[in-house]
């Protein structure tokens, strides 16, 4: 589904992504791991159009999407979430979901005068879909809650729900477990697995929690210093000498993470 070929992203003399090449197969849940500063989030940002690459190529199926802006990729079904959730704090959780689809009738001034029935019908349909998504994610009790008042883990679930409001094909999740308690992380994991198996979503997941990666992801890709070091099952990655060296080089804490 996604092919990255010899991708580079430089910031002056710093090579954040340095010749990375990888393939994301359709229907997979691919894990992306690596020490801090390995280039994982920068790679996500380049693929998702947040940053333009210095050189290299990104394709989605047969389509060259290199350098396309996020809104164009959104309409092609490529979405990403962020390590820090980007909710609309003063709006309810339901309203956060309802505003995701683009091209709504209420966005056109003419319709506010002469297309009120169309707007009302569309809003009823969006409300029903939002409630379905909240139920799927087991957070329907938060429908009327202001999004800025829910917990960090619930915000991550809400971000995942926003991808369900459109025809998502591939979703990039950046540290979905950051700041999330174990119970909510398991709920997020359950939702990802269900979306993958029941609705055919393809996921790419940046995460430092190896238990979470091991539960969800196959294959796993390891990056270090802007390059792809290895790809395989988590057990294969853990046994790879280059991967071990990359983690050991950043200290005992990372060594323990791979244990």
UniProtKB/TrEMBL annotation:
Keywords: ATP-binding, Nucleotide-binding, Transport
PROSITE patterns tied to this protein: ABC_TRANSPORTER_1 (PS00211), ABC_TRANSPORTER_2 (PS50893)
Family matches, as Pfam families: ABC_tran, BCA_ABC_TP_C
GO cellular component, one term: plasma membrane
InterPro entries to which the protein is assigned, alphabetical: AAA+_ATPase, ABC_AA/LPS_Transport, ABC_transporter-like_ATP-bd, ABC_transporter-like_CS, BCA_ABC_TP_C, P-loop_NTPase
Signal peptide, first to last residue: none
MF terms (GO), sorted A to Z: ATP binding; ATP hydrolysis activity
Domain ABC transporter: start-end pairs: 2-250
Domain of life per record: Bacteria
Protein name per the record: ABC transporter ATP-binding protein
Organism: Litorivita pollutaquae
């Amino acid at each position: 589904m996604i092919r990255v070929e010899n991708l580079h992203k430089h910031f002056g003399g710093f090579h954040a992504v340095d010749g990375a090449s990888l393939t994301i197969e359709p229907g997979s849940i691919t894990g992306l791991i690596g020490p801090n500063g390995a280039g994982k989030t920068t790679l996500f940002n380049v693929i998702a159009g947040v940053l333009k690459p210095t050189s290299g190529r990104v394709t989605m199926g047969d389509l060259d999407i290199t350098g396309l802006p996020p809104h164009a990729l959104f309409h092609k079904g490529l979405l990403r979430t962020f390590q820090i959730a980007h909710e609309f704090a003063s709006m309810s959780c339901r309203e956060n979901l309802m505003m995701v689809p683009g091209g709504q009738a209420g966005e056109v001034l003419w319709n506010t005068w002469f297309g009120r029935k169309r707007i009302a019908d569309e809003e009823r349909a969006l409300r029903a879909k939002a409630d379905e998504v909240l139920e799927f994610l087991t957070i329907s009790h938060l429908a009327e809650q202001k999004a800025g008042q829910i917990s960090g883990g619930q915000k991550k679930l809400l971000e995942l729900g926003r991808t369900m409001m459109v025809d998502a094909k591939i979703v990039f999740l950046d540290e979905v477990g950051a700041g999330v308690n174990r119970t909510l992380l398991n709920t997020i994991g359950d939702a990802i697995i269900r979306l993958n198996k029941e609705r055919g979503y393809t996921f790419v997941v940046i995460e430092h929690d190896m238990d979470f990666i091991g539960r969800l992801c196959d294959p796993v890709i390891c990056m270090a210093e802007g390059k792809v070091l290895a790809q395989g099952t988590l057990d294969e990655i853990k046994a790879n000498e280059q991967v071990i060296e990359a983690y050991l080089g950043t200290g005992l804490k990372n060594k323990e993470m791979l244990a």
